[in-house]
Amino acid sequence: MDLDVFVTTHRIEWDRLDHLLHQGRSLTGAEVDELVVLYQRTATHLSLIQSSAPDPLLTARLTQLVARARSTVTGTRRASWRDAARFLTAGFPAAVYRSRHWWIPTAVLSVLMAAVIGWWIGAHPDVQAAIAAPEDLRALTRPGGEYETYYSSHPAASFAAQVWTNNAQAAAMCLVLGAFLCVPVIWILFVNVLNLGVGIGLMSSAGRLDTFLGLVLPHGLLELTAVFVAAGTGLRLGWTVIDPGPRTRRSALAQQGRAALGMAIGLALVLFVSGVIEGFVTPSGLPTWARIAIGIAAELAFLAYVYILGGRAARAGNTGDVETAERSAELPSAA
């Protein structure tokens, strides 16, 4: 492409679009139609320049022009409670449902790995000795030891807030860092699985696995599911970098990134619920069966939410992405 010839040919259209944008609301019907046509043409011109003859100054000017035109054509709107309700009843559960082929295998493999690590540690005293000194292990696993008192070491409200903050940060890191070819997500997931496996192994070697599970399951079912969803979504985002499919990598990443951002907000709410359970139910005086029943009920409620509301929304075409009018303009690709 001869850039000088291209600019000379289309400068009049760009200047006309700029003039129409400056007129604001005083446009006639014919001028509005003209503005829409010029907006579409300028977007195509910008795509051609970016792919064939990138020029920083010209690209910056046309990008600004296209953004202004898009704002004028599509208008702006404020988020409302209706948007929040739509997100919670359709967008978020649909995003979780659509990514189930990533987070369910992640969950299964992680649980199996934690079980294997727990068995390995529990069955090999030399491995336990490498973790800590015998007196330290007894302090962890004995009745009234650190594994038990951990959940009641702080006031319930502050403990729940701390747990929620830590878990939400871990989930957000999985979602954000997934773009770095999945590696950070795998590491975060491995650390969580390792900690769980060590707890299983040490408490089983002390003959107190039932106590450990009674402490972990009430909040852990929902908490770990949220972590697995975040990790699966992060892995999906990382795989999009490697293989964007039929879309351009930029377009695919934009869509998955927007869905991941919404997922972070939704999972923060899920982790808030698990944090409340961990702060108030896990250390409570309720019987073990009652605490575990509460955890199972919370887990089943979340899965029903995802598979019923999310499945219905996904079948209706909801991807968890923002509404079309709220997205950045996607420029047509040059042939």
How does this model look, in words?
The chain is mainly alpha-helical. The protein has helices spanning 3-23, 29-52, 56-74, 81-98, 100-123, 125-131, 134-141, 146-149, 156-177, 183-205, 209-242, 249-281, 288-315. α1 runs antiparallel to α2 (29-52). It is elongated. 34% of the residues are buried.
- For the termini, the CA-CA separation is 13 Å
| Main beta-sheet annotation | none
What is the H/E string?
Answer: HHHHHHHHHHHHH
Count all strands and give the number. 0
3D shape: elongated
The number of helical segments is 13
The share of residues in helices is over 70%
What ranges have pLDDT less than 50 throughout 5 or more consecutive residues? 324-335
User: pLDDT average, as an integer?
Assistant: 85
- Structural class by SSE content: mainly alpha
What fraction of residues sit in β-strands?
under 5%
Spatial extent as radius of gyration: 27 Å
Outline:
This protein has helices spanning 3-23, 29-52, 56-74, 81-98, 100-123, 125-131, 134-141, 146-149, 156-177, 183-205, 209-242, 249-281, 288-315. By secondary structure, the protein is an all-alpha fold.
Descriptors for this entry?
0% strand; mainly alpha; 335 residues; disordered C terminus
What's the layout of helices and strands?
Blueprint (H helix, E strand, L loop, with lengths): L2 H21 L5 H24 L3 H19 L6 H18 L1 H24 L1 H7 L2 H8 L4 H4 L6 H22 L5 H23 L3 H34 L6 H33 L6 H28 L20
Helix pairs in contact: 1-2, 1-3, 2-3, 4-12, 4-13, 5-6, 5-10, 5-11, 9-10, 9-11, 9-12, 10-11, 11-12, 11-13, 12-13
